[in-house]
Amino acid sequence: MNAKLADKIATTVIYVIAGMVALVLFSMLGFILVQGLPHLSWHFLTSPALSFEAGGGIGIQLFNSFYLLVLAMVISFPIALGAAIYLNEYAKKSVWTNIIRTAIEILSSLPSVVVGLFGFLLFVVQFKFGFSILSGAIALSIFNLPLLTRSIETSLAQIPYLQREAGAALGLSRWETVLHVVLPAAVPSIVTGVVLSAGRVFGEAAALIFTAGQSAPALNFMDWNPFNISSPLSPMRPAETLAVHIWKINSEGIMPDLNLVSAGASAVLIIVVLIFNFSARKLGMKLFKKLTSS
Amino acid sequence: MTNPNIDLKPLSEFIVDEAPERYIYDMNSGKHEVAIATKGLQVRYGDKLALSEGDLSFERYKITSLIGASGSGKSTFLRSLNRMNDDVATVSGKIMYRGLDINSADIDVYEMRRHIGMVFQRPNPFAKSIYDNITFALTQRGRYTKEQLDEIVETSLKQAALWDQVKDELNKSALALSGGQAQRLVIARALALKPDILLLDEPSSALDPISSAQVEDTLLELKKDYTIIIVTHNMQQAARISDYTAFFHMGRAIEYDLTRKIFTRPKVALTNDYISGNFG
């Protein structure tokens, strides 16, 4: 077989494989959107779920998903940022840093249901946080930390060593260089990583079933005092998220329109995740432009 | 690392005017002022000796070229002068600057590097605007008014012969500059700190000939106010711009003399071989 023919065959095979991946994705997306989109309405997006009758919405679940996402990010981002800066800028190769890296790798390959059960035993039971936003946010943070750390570390590693040398040659300390030279240059790619991980956290169900709980008590959207249990901001209330809701109604839902609710909720979930993914790059580029010129 | 028990004064407070290292004497031309000098400098990477250089003195307000084949230790030597090798190598010996051994542990390295600036082979502007590239290191340590900063930006850019090209777009990202412009911006950035000595590590080897010539002109202009030590692979460049030339080979300075002597009547056969292109 000559080289030209072999090349043609290889190229074709690779195209077919790539096409198959795309086909799987698009058929799934298409299926979910075609099933769910017709059911979407303002009423569906804003009203509370109904357990026994038709016509329930996903308002509270949607709010819970976003609130949990924000809390999980607030907890995990600073830790991940610190860890990534340490690993990429300060750590010398040693047994100690090897242990950290291995720990991060193992943590990132933990099944999320294990993280959820761990969160259940430690936060819900041991620390008596109960099924709550707080327990859920911490579990999500554990789930998110290793991947976010890795992604920020990669962003920092992409900044050329020359930039650090430039800082050092101007008499800047390592910390000043990291803070004012390396981090700003890495912000666009860090933001992209954060938004992408937000998409993953938003769709996470297994880690939340046993931590944030499977019930969505009615919320009083006029009460924004986080210390009141019926306030949307209360961290101690149980909070079923959108992804958990989909899992729940498909396994034990008894409302007559459960197929419609499930399809609609899935479509919303997918759309939000898609928005995260598409906006991640755009946001990164925009920030880069903004940060590099004054 | 600096020793926490020793009070870290800014370098300027250590200046001893008539330190013995301050002058060198030449039989022909008499007394010359020394900007920086090394005594028994040795650099080790792990246990491999990369540089074993006795004593070199660099005259003030002159350009000195360090030439030699790749791996001859010239860059290692240069980077040791403002301790850019601290993280990767063990540097022993003394580096005398204004009567002070700046290779000793109690020196505030960050302050010292503001006196001894460095420009690298590849232009490395920060991902900031042209203006911020120049003012950034200044504003980290001191307070300046907007007028002062504007003036420093203008002066440094003029010194680096870049002002006319960028004066209308100071807020543009420095990453948009061409290679030659970026390198001159980096020089301007170093000059903004008003250093004494400027170390340049092959500053024009990544540039095209025209940009390279512009950088050379800039350096010739700068030597009125700065002591310049430059590592270069380009023999013509060394011959064109430098007053002194040191030839490095296998981690040693083999010959160090006036540039015209090195290039016309080198005393060492090895030097002659190198400059006539027989190796390296």
TrEMBL record, chain A:
Coiled-coil ranges (or none): none
Residue ranges of every copy of the ABC transmembrane type-1 domain listed in the record: 62-279
Organism: Convivina praedatoris
InterPro entries with a match to the protein in the record: MetI-like (IPR000515), MetI-like_sf (IPR035906), Phosphate_PstA (IPR005672)
Main location: membrane
Domain of life the protein comes from: Bacteria
Location of this chain's protein in the cell: Cell membrane
Transmembrane region(s): 12-34, 66-87, 99-123, 129-148, 260-280
Gene this chain is encoded by: pstA
Keywords (A to Z) from UniProt: Cell membrane, Membrane, Transmembrane, Transmembrane helix, Transport
Name of the protein this chain belongs to: Phosphate transport system permease protein PstA
Pfam assignment, any one: BPD_transp_1
Family, similarity comment: Belongs to the binding-protein-dependent transport system permease family. CysTW subfamily.
Topology relative to the membrane: Multi-pass membrane protein
Gene3D superfamilies from the UniProt entry: MetI-like
UniProtKB/TrEMBL annotation, chain B:
Single annotated GO MF: ATP binding
Protein name as annotated: Phosphate import ATP-binding protein PstB 3
CDD domains found in the cross-reference section: ABC_PstB_phosphate_transporter
A Pfam family hit: ABC_tran
PANTHER family (UniProt xref): ABC TRANSPORTER I FAMILY MEMBER 17, PHOSPHATE IMPORT ATP-BINDING PROTEIN PSTB 2
PROSITE patterns: ABC_TRANSPORTER_1 (PS00211), ABC_TRANSPORTER_2 (PS50893)
Domain of life the protein comes from: Bacteria
Keywords: ATP-binding, Cell membrane, Membrane, Nucleotide-binding, Phosphate transport, Translocase, Transport
Domain named ABC transporter: residues: 36-275
Record SMART domains: AAA
